[in-house]
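Design review, sub-item: ligand-bound model
Attendees: FS, YL, KQ
YL presented the inputs for the adenosine monophosphate complex:
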Amino acid sequence: MPEAPNNTHKNANSYSVAETNKKAFQFIEDVTTKPDEVQKRVLAEILSRNANVEYFRRHGLKGQTDRETFKKTMPVITYEDIQEDINRIADGDKSPIICSQPISEFLTSSGTSGGERKLMPTIEEELGRRSLLYSLLMPVMSQCVPNLEKGKGMYFLFIKSESKTPGGLLARPVLTSYYKSSHFKERPYDPYTNYTSPNETILCSDSYQSMYSQMLCGLFQYQEVLRVGAVFASGFIRAIRFLQKHWTLLCHDIRTGTLNELITDLSVRESVMKILKPDPDVADFIEFECSKESWQGIITRLWPNTKYIDVIVTGTMSQYIPTLDYYSNGLPLVCTMYASSECYFGVNLNPLCKPSEVSYTLIPTMAYFEFLPVERNNEVTDSISMATSLNEKEQQELVDLVDVQLGEEYELVVTTYAGLYRYRVGDILRVAGFKNKAPQFTFICRKNVVLSIDADKTDEVELQNAVKNAETHLIPFDAQLTEYTSYADTTTIPGHYVLFWELNVNGSTPIPPSVFEDCCLTIEESLNSVYRQGRVSDSIGALEIKIVESGTFDKLMDYAISLGASINQYKAPRCVKFAPIIELLNARVMSSYFSPKCPKWVPGHKQWSSIDSLP
Ligand code: AMP
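KQ shared the predicted structure:
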């Protein structure tokens, strides 16, 4: 197997950018030249290590490690198929159920099952694989943008709350797990992981204190900043919004060299005070720029040496491109990697390309990848629905990494070192090209998802159930919901879900606004845990219901038919993205209502409520 680049340098003197970059390129070259060989070995390694796990015995795999037997014997699965096994592990069963190595923790995916976050098993060594993928990003980037090692990155990185399963395993998001690991905290000197945010500010669990201190350090060191970013576009925009609200306090701290007393976390205070010195000139400069009426180009004005914005703007995050373009005067938007809680997948080898042209090269050492061909059946909503279980014939249709066809779409299926076997990730990818013999994929969409603002992924069924629960508030007024649709409104910061409702009102008592507000809240309470967490942490705004004139949905149908939809098969889409349709709906809004408060949310799964949540 090709050697992973080994960054063991301890200090600035022994660090050679050229040497490290060379190793990374050699690794990429090696694994993309012989992806099939690497994949075969990865699968054999996973299967031989785990030969004795209960899951294999159950399905009749008896120690064989070849692809053919594996594919013939093992089913292609979704989360629900292994939920019982996951629950046993979560409850404390330490026997080798799915993996011979101990499950070290669960990574809480933003995908949900039954309204709760999915729990993805992981093992200690996976941290090494994640670090490996990270180590490839800057060598690739530095090929396109020189001299990045001469300055800093201003990245807004955050940890989220974590909880413990009844059996005592930690359950937390993958990035929280990574930032808290020694791989991140004790990373050896590397000019490419030289951030303006001290580790303590990233590791602070209070999101206000974390954001405030990271922004303060980023502003104070503005001249050194060569690149800025966050994980998702929505997170970066939230940081700009924070600056809009709090720049006077931040300027005061820079002017006086003191830290606002709302920052009470002692380790954060200590780390910031090592950086901050009184600097009235910097404070004047920031005040001058922030007090201008227009915030257009604020990123390039405040951090003038910035070369690009490093955020994911592929998939649903593409809805934030216009806002980022506005704040940055069109700086390049760079999507460097594609990853998930299940496993990290790949990197973008052409990071300066347009967001619409981004493709990710899957790194064949990360996991064993298979691809399920996709037939598109719904161009209007851009969502793809696929059966949750596959028949025997469909199970045989999966192809290997090197057998995918240019231009075709596939659902990604992974077999990981941590105990997921032929697991459907739920992402739809299209083959856009090849690096040597390794395919490169454009991210098309997440299967079945209709609405998303931040990490939330709401599917049509969840939305339908939530609307059904809310509708009950209309019964006393003899009113019925006749049609509805939705869209993710990202013109507000944070973005929010909007539902267009058309009603049939028979009763004579007018429906008071408070009833519609109750409807909004009931929908929010009925949505999944990731949505509700987003609301509580203010990364998603209050849900809005817009009541439209009667006859609006007929107009929508007429419009869809004029665009070529079949009259016989027409169904009102449950989510709309096409701007003229949103305009058509907005032009017929009679009144609108917002959720009056946040829905309830607690860390961890509902059924673990007896277990103390960690901060
Ligand atoms: P999670 O399991 O919560 O970490 O979410 C992982 C999911 O986020 C993936 O399966 C994708 O649906 C989405 N995702 C991750 N990286 C990207 C990317 N670069 N572009 C688009 N979507 C992404």
